[in-house]
Design goal:
Length: 208
């Protein structure tokens, strides 16, 4: 099984990924948890460039190619070998993030993004994608609470409310287009209820 988690910044993904990890451990599933950008050593170096506040002047195409470079390395080095070994792969953000984030930034380059996503993922498509959905205001509020000091925020977390609203609707549009794969979870609900909903959806796939 290949499961991805997506959502706007501050949607509660990291918390739910780690809760999901505990469920899989309890159920004796053999799995790995990974994330993008930065799921490999090379990816870590790319991540630093992408998220550093001093790099706000990066041109949109360079940003797109860096995310895809990170992904190509990650799929070859981590995701595909784990899937081939029969492990579950849980990934915090994947190609949908590029479709949405870089799609919003790059506007009309949808076909280009689709094409490089296809190349970089080497045919490894998620079986299930959890979209943790909440209003952009809620996400930004959570980020503000987490990092009282604004200096801690990365380049994306510093973007405007309008940007985050566009990202949210970008994800919802994608989830409607790929209904078979996406599961939309209301992440304004209490943490426990969100975790329970995710467990319920995944339980048919778990070993008894
Ligand atoms: P990260 O600190 O990993 O945040 P989060 O916990 O929200 O995932 O930062 C990842 C940032 O990179 C996030 O703001 C979304 C952005 N991003 C893209 O713009 N395109 C991509 O393809 C990916 C994977 C992430």
């Amino acid at each position: 099984m290949f499961i991805t988690f997506e959502g706007i910044d501050g949607c509660g993904k990291s918390t739910q990924v780690s809760r999901f990890e505990s469920t899989l451990k309890e159920r004796g599933v053999s799995f790995i948890v990974t994330s993008e950008p930065g799921g490999t050593k090379i990816g870590q170096a790319i991540r630093k460039i992408l998220l550093h506040v001093d790099n706000a002047h990066i041109v949109p195409l360079a940003e797109l190619f860096l995310y895809e470079a990170d992904r190509a390395q990650h799929v070859s080095e981590v995701i595909r070998p784990a899937l081939e070994a029969g492990k579950w792969v849980i990934c915090d953000r994947y190609s949908d993030a590029t479709t949405v984030y870089q799609g919003v930034v790059l506007g009309h380059h949808e076909k280009l993004i689709e094409q490089i996503n296809r190349e970089a993922t080497l045919g490894c498509q998620p079986d299930i994608t959890f979209l943790l959905d909440c209003p952009a205001e809620v996400g930004l509020e959570r980020i503000a609470k987490r990092d009282k000091n604004d200096k801690k925020r990365d380049r994306f977390e510093r973007k405007t409310l309008d940007f985050h609203i566009k990202i949210r609707y970008g994800y919802l549009t994608l989830a409607n287009r790929y209904k078979d794969r996406f599961r939309i979870i209301d992440s304004t609900l209490p943490e426990d209820r969100v975790a329970r909903k995710i467990r319920e959806i995944i339980s048919p796939y778990l070993p008894c």
